[in-house]
């Protein structure tokens, strides 16, 4: 082969390799998440511990349903157990989804009248989430799964 033919072959191979590398990156960027990726009703559980204040310290668990409207508003109906004391909770709040499919909830919890902040990651193509409460004194994680995947209810 002539040197010019070899150089052309290497140039074409290099351009093809760069195109293959760039294609998945641009494809991933085009699939960024928005609030619309969190839409519908999810069944979830939360488990962990309350470490402070001392009068509330101990194990904590909750299960319930959480509805996301796809525009940044959420509501939930929950049954909780804090140190074995059972308490139904109603939650209202807001959420923000980042383009990397992470996000935050800001939740108002009644009847105990507290605000809780939560960091989450959307998983299973929007049919689930994993989360951790970020308030000092709370070590509580959550896992949620869409009740009816593929449709908002």
**Biggest sheet character:** 8 strands, antiparallel, barrel
Question: Per DSSP, what share of the residues sits in E-state strands of 2 or more residues?
Answer: over 45%
The CATH homologous superfamily of the largest domain corresponds to Quinohemoprotein amine dehydrogenase alpha subunit, domain 2
From the 3D structure, determine the CATH topology of the largest domain.
Answer: Lipocalin
- What is the level-2 CATH architecture name of the largest domain? Beta Barrel
Shape: globular
Mean pLDDT: 85
> What is the number of E strands?
8
Describe the structure.
- With 153 residues, the chain is α+β, with helices and mostly antiparallel strands.
- The chain folds into two domains: 1-31; 35-146, Lipocalin, CATH 2.40.128.120.
- Helices cover 18% and strands 53% of the residues.
- The protein has an eight-stranded antiparallel beta barrel.
Question: What's the short version?
Answer:
The protein is α+β, with helices and mostly antiparallel strands and 153 residues long. It has one helix and eight strands, in the order αββββββββ.
Question: Can you give keywords for this protein?
Answer:
153 residues; alpha+beta; Lipocalin; 2 domains; 8-stranded antiparallel barrel
Topology:
Elements: H1 3-30, E1 39-50, E2 58-69, E3 73-82, E4 85-97, E5 102-110, E6 114-123, E7 128-133, E8 138-146
Antiparallel strand pairs: 1-2, 1-8, 2-3, 3-4, 4-5, 5-6, 6-7, 7-8
């Amino acid at each position: 082969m002539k040197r010019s033919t070899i150089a052309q072959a290497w140039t074409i191979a290099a351009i093809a390799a760069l195109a293959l590398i760039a294609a998945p990156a641009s494809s991933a960027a085009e699939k960024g998440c928005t609030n619309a990726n969190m839409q519908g009703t999810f069944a979830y559980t939360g488990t962990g511990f309350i470490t402070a204040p001392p009068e509330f310290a101990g194990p904590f668990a909750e299960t319930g349903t959480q509805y996301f409207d796809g525009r940044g508003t959420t509501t939930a109906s929950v049954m909780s157990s804090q140190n074995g004391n059972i308490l139904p909770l109603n939650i209202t709040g807001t959420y923000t989804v980042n383009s990397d499919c992470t996000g935050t909830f800001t939740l108002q919890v009644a009847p105990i009248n507290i605000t809780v902040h939560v960091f989450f990651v959307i998983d299973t193509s929007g049919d689930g989430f994993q989360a951790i409460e970020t308030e000092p004194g709370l070590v509580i994680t959550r896992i949620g799964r869409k009740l009816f995947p593929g449709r908002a209810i």
